[in-house]
Amino acid sequence: SGILKQARQFVRSLSFDVDQYRPVVKEAGFKKIVWWMFQDFGRQLDLHVAETAGPEIQAFVREQEAHILAYFSSLFNSYRIDLVGQEGLEPATGPEAGGKQTHPAAAGMDQADLSQIKRHLGLGIPEPVFKAGYSPAMRLGAWTRFVFQTLGQMGAALSGTQTGFSFSPVLERTGKQIKKENLGRLAPQLTAFADRLKTDYFFPLIDAAIRDFNLKIQAQFRQYRDWEEQIQTQQSLSRNRRQSEIKELADLAAEVS
């Protein structure tokens, strides 16, 4: 998937500026700073989704909706029966036809309005595609690294090989761990999103389009039955007129003879 590939590239390209946290190390503490790092990572991932993944998903959804409309359009066309011109008949009009003058094939059937269906059902594309995760294992790993880093620096200070204390090395490794764990979450999240998109969006949309199609097909066949009745009525009227004309001619011939 292009979306997954781009998301992976984006996460790998992210870097954590641990120097920005130095002024607040003493006041905030290690746990708070790690949480801020994760929050910064999550905001950048959300921005990527909004600017890159979101538009691609919208385009994919529009493409699939076009396929749905094309499918139902082909079904509509397969149910059109052109009765115009059969046996030289034209649509009956006026009082003899009971006021019925709409040919069902000429009237046609409107395709499903997917926008209206979505509004009626309250359908929307599920969110989010990707969401940063900050698991207990990640927190435990960060804290463990911090403890070992602290012990190591304390030992170095006691031995005189190091003066001062720095959070930077452990924060850098924690940043790498945040990226690594979230890289592993991307593929399952995209799979879960695809399942939600199918189950919560496309399936209800298609079901509603099928119901709409069935209702319109039933209406179309009712129109065909009405049209057939018009044809039968017109044929009957034509026969009656011919019989009447023949009878009048016969009566006239009898009078002449």
Keywords:
mainly alpha
Query: How does the helix and strand content classify structurally?
Result: mainly alpha
Distance between the termini: 95 Å
Q: What's the assembly state of these chains?
A: single chain
Mean pLDDT: 77
| Count of DSSP H/I helices | 7
Gross geometry? rod-shaped
Alpha carbon gyration radius? 37 Å
Q: How many DSSP E strands?
A: 0
**Proportion of β residues?**
under 5%
Low-confidence stretches: 83-108
* DSSP helix fraction: over 70%
Q: What is the helix/strand order?
A: HHHHHHH
Largest sheet: none
Q: SSE layout and pairings?
A:
Blueprint: H1 2-13, H2 25-28, H3 30-78, H4 104-107, H5 114-121, H6 136-159, H7 168-256
Short description:
This protein has 257 residues and is mainly α.
Structure notes:
Helices cover 74% and strands 0% of the residues. The chain contains 7 helices and no strands. The chain has helices at 2-13, 25-28, 30-78, 104-107, 114-121, 136-159, 168-256. Helix 1 (2-13) packs antiparallel against helix 3. The longest helix has 89 residues, at 168-256. It starts with a helix and ends with a helix.
